[in-house]
Amino acid sequence: MLKKITALMLAASVMIIAAAAVRSFSSNWAKRFPPKKTEPKQTEAPAPVEKKNIELLPYSGTRLITGEEAAALSDQELRIARCEITARHGKRVCSEKTKEYFETISWYHPSSDYDSASLSDIEKENLEILYKEELGRKQAAEENSFSYDDLTGKWISIDENPEDDYVPKSTTLIEIKERGGVFYYVYSFVATPICFTPGEDIEKGESHRIFCDATTGRVTLDEDTGTLTLYFRPSGEMALYTYKYDVMSDCLILTDDDDYQETLIKDDDFEY
To answer: Which one, 28, 68, 69, 159, has least CB within 10 Å?
Structure first.
């Protein structure tokens, strides 16, 4: 019996000594090799875009661009050169590739107050020179793409019978506007009343036009295919009309009706 008690006491003593040794070892280990502190990960802020004070064609506002100068530009440079003229006056650049470029330009400050009337005659002519060069290249390649940057303005369709003085002019007018990078349209109808007096010039009816502001809504454009969609409401819930840009005629053509393909031409000088 005494031997059993002695054995138990000896075992207990061994266990106590072992536990103490483990605690001592752990303490010394922790002192010699303290755990590494885990630093919280820092999220690096994106580097600011370096702005450049440059212009592709700095003289495009003061003198006419020659055909040789326009022909020497790449396709993307042609687009940039055109946008550069209006961007100086505050017009927003909306097409993705062109916008990426202008967001690196220090003098580019788009404004909702942009007015095309601020352009000089030289600037307007240069816009036409650059546009014709770009259009000619697209027509040669039969490339039907279209751009948000070419969308704003007045698009009209005039239906008339030049052989009959008793048929009135009727004009569909789609005026497309941009605000904050979002595009809206106003769809209107303008008509000249029929003149019933034989021999009287139908043009006298110009001062008696009937104007109807039909509807307004949002516009979207697929720049790769040139498909333009007009929605019934600004929220863009229901498509009202779909037009397709035709590069060969430089027009928008209605695609919703097989029997009637309305054609719209760009005419920012149209008055109503």
So the answer is: 68
Tokens of 171: 């004009």
Query: Tokens 């695609």 map to which residue?
Result: 255
CA distance 124 to 129: 9
- Percent of the chain exceeding pLDDT 90 equals 52
Helix, strand or coil, per DSSP, at residue 146 = coil
Of 57, 78, 53, the closest CA to residue 131 belongs to 78
pLDDT (0 to 100) of residue 2 = 45
Contacts 24+ apart (CB under 8 A), 45-53: 49/103, 49/104, 50/104, 51/104, 51/105, 51/106, 52/104, 52/105, 52/106, 53/105, 53/106, 53/107
Contact 98, 149 (CB under 8 A): yes
The string of pLDDT tens digits covering residues 102-132 is: 999 999 999 988 988 999 999 999 999 999 9
User: What is the spatial distance between Cα 182 and Cα 184, in angstroms, rounded to a whole number?
Assistant: 7
pLDDT (tens digit per residue) in 27-44? 554 555 555 555 556 656
The answer, yes or no, to whether residue 95 has pLDDT greater than 60, is yes
118: how many CB neighbours lie within 10 A of its CB? 13
* Overall pTM surpassing 0.70 (yes/no): yes
Tokens coding 220: 């979207």
Count of other CB atoms within 10 angstroms of residue 255: 14
Question: Is the CB of residue 86 less than 8 Å from the CB of residue 98?
Answer: no
